Amino acid sequence: MSHCQPKYRRVMPAATTKLREIEVMIISAQDLKNVKHVTQVRAYAVVYVEKEYHAARTGVDEQGGTSPTWNEVVKVKFREDLLENDVLAALNVDIYAQGRVREKPVGSARVLLCDVLKGGDEREPADNPVQCMTVQVWRPSGRPHGLLNLWVPPTGRFLMRRESLSFSAREAVDGEEVEVEEEPVVKGGEEA
């Protein structure tokens, strides 16, 4: 059997409409409603500002049940003029339980964009502090049930990433590149 995935209709913006992209880290949720009474909840999240323009999806947490952990960065696009024209523009996170036949809605969370996007330079640590936030998850019935942990950088982008934290085999010495011979790693008296 194939797993059903929600289909999203994409509306092509007018040629003059500029889109803005922001990054969001969906960290985890806790104490969600168990909508799968026979099997364990296998949850994923759909993130969007304007669903008709763009929505992003996390992977499925196979193990977490009603307290899933994703630790996933998703990118979401929306119309740039939305921030100026709609004070209630929000980042929405819909949580679903993956099923064999159909997806079951678990709950939704919402954060106003004006509360999280503050501007600044995304490469500057002072402008991009680590601020994890916890928001209430609301059931489709309108009742609160569970919490969602996420992080939206104030600039809309995470700090510039390095490809690797390890050092290259080449190092610069007085402006010239010099080949560096790497030492073998020794573990317990044996070469690795």
UniProtKB/TrEMBL annotation:
<dbReference type="InterPro" id="IPR044750">
    <property type="entry name" value="C2_SRC2/BAP"/>
</dbReference>
<dbReference type="InterPro" id="IPR000008">
    <property type="entry name" value="C2_dom"/>
</dbReference>
<dbReference type="Pfam" id="PF00168">
    <property type="entry name" value="C2"/>
</dbReference>
<protein>
    <recommendedName>
        <fullName>C2 domain-containing protein</fullName>
    </recommendedName>
</protein>
<dbReference type="InterPro" id="IPR035892">
    <property type="entry name" value="C2_domain_sf"/>
</dbReference>
<feature type="domain" description="C2">
    <location>
        <begin position="1"/>
        <end position="126"/>
    </location>
</feature>
<dbReference type="GO" id="GO:0006952">
    <property type="term" value="P:defense response"/>
</dbReference>
